Amino acid sequence: MTERLARRGEIKKVATALKSREFPRLVVFADMLTRYIDIKFEGKVNWVRAIALMHIVSRGGSLTASQLGRLMLRPNYSMTGLIDDLEKDGLVARERTGKDRRTIDVRLTAAGLAFIMQCFRDTDLVEDEAMFSLDKNEIDMLRNLIRRLRQTLIEKTSKHPDAWVYYSRGISYKALGKKAEAVADLKTCIELSRDRSLTKAARRELNELLGE
Q1: Residue 157: inside a domain
Q2: Mean pLDDT for the chain?
Q3: Domain end (from 107, 133, 159)
């Protein structure tokens, strides 16, 4: 049976609809960026591992497996193998913490930090090429918008967003000049935080916003 080909008018209608929607463009761009990076590095870098380590670095060097899974939008069971591989290669170490010693933190090792620094050096040239057409203000705006979108996705896929989610989004709102939203998120961060350094950082940012 021969399938009917789409009519020119139908194609034009859908193409017009696509032009008015941003999300499909984001998906296409994300795929293009991933392919661009793979082409430049010839598939030599395992970016899932690198991203996991980057999240740990950005959170002060330590996360639980569930926190890491939430940041990467991956189920907890899928994180076990990833963390096992990172630990096997000496890039992270598991450590029992908390009063009952039941909480297991995934902590960055010196080798893991060196691995991330090497990733930064490897990606500098690619970043310069990809960002060549943007000026500093545009790059700063893009960075803040990406951070904000990322935190929104984390929040939407998590039943219980943690303090780091609200802190990061609050910082993004602050950079974009959205004071009310930034204040609300930073206050929520302080309420949820069990990390003294995070609480201190959130209070400092909040005081700056409130002029205290």
Answers
A1: yes
A2: 84
A3: 133
Q: Please, which residues bridge with residue 104 across strands?
A: 96
> For residue 22, which amino acid is it?
E
DSSP conformation letters of 86-137:
HHHTTSEEEEEESTTS-EEEEEE-HHHHHHHHHHHHHHHHHHHHHTTT--HH
Mark whether 56 and 122 lie in a shared domain: yes
pLDDT tens, 93-113? 998 876 666 678 899 999 999
Together in a domain, 58 and 126: yes
pTM of this structure: 0.66
Q: pLDDT tens digits, residue range 134-146?
A: 898 998 888 888 8
Instruction: Encode pLDDT of 25-43 as tens digits.
Output: 888 888 888 888 888 887 7
Q: Containing domain of residue 155, as a range?
A: 134-212
Q: Computed from CA positions of residues 58, 61, 66, 72, in that sequence, does the dihedral angle turn out positive or negative?
A: positive
Residue 33: inside a domain: no
The domain boundary residue, chosen from 90, 116, 133: 133
